[in-house]
Design brief:
single chain; alpha/beta; 8-stranded mixed beta sheet; about 45% helix
């Protein structure tokens, strides 16, 4: 569902796609990523680095040298800025008429991509609730965002996605603050942990934080999302989801079966699978809620610090070609605020374009297997949310 390009009452520079097909792109990189991840000639432990290098040399370097292609439209940054301005103006008018701010909940918002996205969304006039386990950094982030955006409604609540007890605590605190959530951004994550590091419930931290914690949080907050007139759920996935065709379920709870690369790729495959499944489920009962996931790109953040190979690779000159956190957060902000994606759901995005997903992500049987496993892991009925 989409609108024809045109102006709105708030801004003449707000754009919308004519069709979903107009948002598709990036086939070259997608094909390369799939080929690398399924190659019999590249060791599995080098796949992640190979995809990273492909990203840099097929995407970041050409963009750095030649600039972006926008199909005759203004640059993405300008279009996002217009969406932020339109939302901010709408918020001013709503508050003047006795209405409420829209509410956004974002995980991992104390630093990196999450911080940059939270700043943009606060600038758009939203009441922003940041969930993060870095308490001191999170409090500082909320204060910094308030000062930068002149928006007083930015707050921090402690959240450790590696503990279901803490996830429940966070959800309860959110419910005490608002009866409605207009935007839920599942952004926090960890990557490439060298050894099996269990969560409070004994799951591998990569799968436990990247998927299970967010799965449970979404379940707990979904009733509030359903109260919104229109709502969006945005999930940060990764190109790493191309790196495996099956989730390593034994390695989620067993140190012996743990594989640092496969478990990370599997956690991001789970994110894409869950986004597809949830979008399909909500489209039947709540078509006003859209669910999309994205790859932010190879960004110069602390995410590579656990892998000595990637750490060295990103410290010997390659860091100059990696994206800044602000650049990496751009697609998160775009999916959260842009009118161009209105009504589009269940897609995987990269650089503000719909991209090809790992074929395994669309496997209905694997999706159902994931949902049943996740339900059981967080203590829900096994068939909860399955149609």
């Amino acid at each position: 569902m989409s609108k024809a390009p045109g102006a709105t009452s708030q801004s003449k520079a707000v754009y919308a796609p004519a069709t979903v097909a107009s948002q598709r792109g990036g086939l070259l990189f997608d094909r390369v990523a799939v080929s690398l991840s399924t190659s019999r000639y590249i060791p599995r432990r080098l796949v992640e680095a190979s995809i990273l290098l492909a990203e840099v040399y097929l995407l970041n370097v050409p963009e750095w040298i030649l600039g972006e292609k926008n199909g005759g439209r203004p640059p993405v940054e300008k279009r996002i800025a217009n969406s932020i301005a339109a939302s901010r103006q709408a918020t001013v008018e709503t508050l003047a008429n006795g209405g409420r701010r829209k509410v956004a909940v974002i995980t991992g918002g104390a630093s990196g991509l999450g911080y940059m996205a939270a700043t943009a969304i606060a600038d758009a006039g939203y009441h922003v609730i940041i969930g993060d386990r870095a308490t001191e950094l999170g409090i500082k982030a909320a204060e910094d965002i308030k000062r930068k955006t002149h928006n007083p409604d930015v707050e921090f609540i402690y959240l450790d996605l590696g503990s279901f007890k803490d996830v429940r605590f966070f959800a309860e605190q959110v419910k005490r603050r608002t009866p409605v959530i207009d935007l839920l951004i599942n952004n926090a994550g960890v990557m490439d942990l060298p050894k099996f590091r269990p969560t409070a419930e004994g799951h591998d931290s990569q799968f436990g934080i990247n998927h299970l914690g967010h799965f449970y949080l979404t379940h707990l907050l979904l009733p509030l999302v359903k109260e919104a007139r229109k709502a969006r759920i945005v999930m940060t996935a990764s190109s790493a989801h191309y790196g495996t065709s099956r989730i390593n379920y034994p390695g989620i709870t067993s140190a012996k079966a743990y594989d640092r690369i496969n478990n990370y790729c599997g956690s991001k495959l789970a994110t894409v699978m869950y986004a597809i499944h949830l979008a399909k489920t909500l489209s039947r009962t709540h078509p006003n809620i859209t669910v999309n996931c994205l790859h932010p790109g190879a960004c110069n953040t602390g995410l590579f610090n656990h892998s000595w190979f990637l750490f060295i690779l990103t410290r010997i000159g390659l860091q100059y070609f990696l994206r800044s956190p602000a650049r990496g957060a751009r697609t998160i902000t775009y999916l959260s605020l842009s009118e161009e994606v209105e009504g589009i759901t269940g897609e995987f995005w990269f650089d503000e374009r719909i991209r090809r997903r790992n074929p395994a992500a669309k496997d209905v049987n694997q999706q159902l297997e994931l949902i049943r496993y996740s339900n059981k892991a967080v203590g829900l009925p096994e068939d909860e949310g399955i149609w």
